[in-house]
Amino acid sequence: MAFNFNWSPLTADADFYKRAQEMLTTALNKSPKPPIIVDDILVNELNLGTTPPELEILEIGDLAEDRFRGIFKMCYSGDAFLTLKTRVQANPLNTYLFSKPSFTSPMPLAASSGLTIPLQITLSEIRLSAFIILVFSRQKGLTLVFRNDPLESLKVSSTFDSIPFVRDYLQKEIEMQLRTLMMDELPAIIHRLSLRLWCPEHRAKAEEEEKAKTENKENEEVPVDPFSSPPQDAVDARGNVLDANEISSLSLDGGSEIHSLFSQKNLLRLGALTDSHRTLSLFTPSIRDAVFRAWAGPSERVDSAGASTPITPLVRSHTSAPCTSTTYTFSRSDDGHGHMPSRPSLVSMHSATTGLSLGAGRHSRSHMRKKKNRVVNLRKAKTVDDGASETGESETPGRVASEPAFPTVVSEEPEDFIIEPPKTPSGKVRFRTSSIDLGESPQNLRLSTPRRSALSSKDVPEQAILEPAPMIENAEPAVETVSRNHCHSFSASSYPAEKLGSTSKDAPKAALPISHDPFLSPSPVLTESAPAGGIIEQAWILKMAGEIARRAHDEKAARENFWSSQSQDSTEDSPPPAYEPKAL
Amino acid sequence: MLEFMDYVQQAFYNASRWNSENSYSQLTATARALLEFETPRGFGLSLSSLSSPHFATSYAIGSVGLVDGSLSYLYSSLPLHPPSQSGGIELDAVIRGYRQIQELWKQEESWMWEEWQHGRRFDKRDTLLYGRLYLPQSTLEALYIRRPSPTQQLKLSAVSDSRLRNGGAILALHQYDVGKYSAETLYSTDGGLIGLRGLYNFGADPRNEAREPPRTEDRFYGRFSAGAELYYGSLNKSGGVSFGGRFATLPAHKGTPLTATLTLNPLMGNISTTYAVKAGKNLALCSKFDFNVYSYESDLMLGCELWRMKSKAEKVRERSTAAKLEWRLDDVKEKSPPEPEQVLGVLKARVDQNWKIGLLWEGRAKELLFTLGSSIDMKRRDQPLRAIGLELQYSS
Fold first, then answer.
1. Distance CA A236, CA A254 (A)
2. What is the residue range of B281's domain?
3. InterPro entries given for it (chain B) (predicted)?
4. Which residues of A touch B229 (CB under 8 A)?
């Protein structure tokens, strides 16, 4: 959990002040002006000062890479100032007549003749204190609302300071105007600004600035962190893998332990297996203690797919984060939301699913690239891997199957998905129940140890085949205890595994979550705050349930396309149609 | 162009022998008519009728943005007989142009209004009631004019509109005019505004019976008037004051009729001068110059109006039957003085230093009185035509 308050970038951008001035000018001139102001109000000077506002996070109700909602308490007592220029009508009789019906006008002959005076007003020593509700979504832009009247006090100095009457009047009038500006106009401005900024997609930086601006000069960089982190992750994973492992590019990840776990033989077998999938050859290499996805019914797949997608993001978050309960992990694609009402049990599930995600990692990355241009690094990694990718895929399954190689939860996962989905309609329910039932199983104990990979490695194969449930349990402990140490390696390994399990269909979904992972890594912040918004959770759950059902339906329909497309494209390039619109 | 109700109201002033021009608020009436005429916006149509000498109605419909309209009724205790058919209304009675101020006349004595019958006085004071309802804004205007005596007039005008503060406003205006001078006091409920206006006419006092014959040999034969106004808003503690003077030639003046005014606003440092001249029989020119001694802002405005006249066709004379019977020609009569020409239309134009141009063409087409106008802003190249409008009036 980290917040990075960036005040200086705002001021550093030369263009920013110009834009802000224009915005303010139009905003000030939009609303009907009092008759005393006879000219346009020009923003002459604007300076945000050097003192940043104090920002206190009261609540974060929703956090994802493309979405954010939170409540802040903002206090500002900095040295920002604003200079306005306009002309005012000095004849009170003139302004008096302005809005009066002519029928009852006294029709003065010349007593109402005007005298316009140029006026320069400087607003300084602004004291703000407000509760801010900030809602951000990539599609709908940024909405900022003040819960209360933010303006505490300000100093108005003008050309008429020597005349106390005028000074008081101006002070009063300007405070009033400013209040309406803050309460009504500012949210609209910010919203427009955000929409304008986010339309072109690549503007992470602009985004940050905007957000900072929008929050009324408070910079909140929660969303920013994720962006910065992902590329690094990708690089690490890919880079390491490549260097360390010649054979399996996928398994790579930081985990040095993992490498040793894969046997050459199994990898080859897996490679043959994937090849057979692609070529439609009927040959299936026998892999011990492995359950093939293809055996499971189509319906299961759908379920598994739905389940798997949410999972992956969680995994990631765990890895990077302290692995506490990940209440909200929203994949960018919205797929995962439904699952996420996250409870600890769910979390465990996700960790378990990590295994599945292994295979998907590939796809996800590829999708990532398409959807998100930001993750440049990933792309490169891919290109590098391309040659290996196919083999990698084939090999990844090897892990799952191979008893000695990767005993981790991963291997279990595929089974779990395959077997369980048909029984329980909703992924959540299933997961919970499983976790609950199995929670006490001995395996948990085993897994709970940080070295679980080593421990479980032997056991896993059996469990995986026989009992789907235990796997889940395993996952739980992993999350709670193990994950801290091994999170990173674990997650990395998980991707390939998932790929196997999910196969082509899962892959697209998995892809999304993975892409999120980097972004989600900061998510821990959110997760902690999340408990606060219980109501929100419920709403989410409901909404997501509907969403998931719809997704599943879509997927089913599109599945066959996927298969074909995957075979052709080697699964990397074409995202499933269902996802494309979301790819944003 | 005056609306029909204003036309009837003017007829009421005439019928009750009230000199509405002899007021400080009308000091610059000529310049206002030539320079500050309103250009119509959108399309407007009004149907009016003076159904009886005491009662007039008018319905108006307009399209400014959306359709709106108004209903108005007028009652006058004094029988009014102005020409009310739009085909017969004298255009110069409804078009405000160069205003030739008239010689002052002696107001009637109040006893002249007394009517006695059987030892009891039964005369009534002339009153005018007028109401107008605007739809769909639901704005109501009401006007009450009463002539308590030949030298006084009381005018109450009220507006009711929910959008106004306090739901509306009432203006009470008391006018006292003895010809030589006039004074007005007013009070408005809006802001508690109190106002005083006075106008003094230099020269002969019309109340004196002995009237000197106009000395037409002077280069200028005219009248100088001076006045002042003072306002004080009792609720908002604001005020205003202005002084003004006017010199205008009288009808007996042989040369070019002209009107010049100067108004000062000492509080705001505003000086305004206007000069209007009736350069020809059909042409009037006017200029206005404003200057503010505090802000050094100035404003210049020029305007003109052009009257298009049509002389009535002369009757073709025929020999009278009597002359034919007697086998002789008609007696040769000296030519009767030419009848005053009829006004066909008026073109008004104004331009100010910001190149804002206003154009107005008023006239009569068949039985309809029309006003066609446009305002143009030459500074805005992209869209110079700011407004254009046409108003039609029909009355019977």
1. 7
2. 4-106+120-203+219-314+337-395
3. Mdm10 (IPR027539), Porin_dom_sf (IPR023614)
4. 108-111
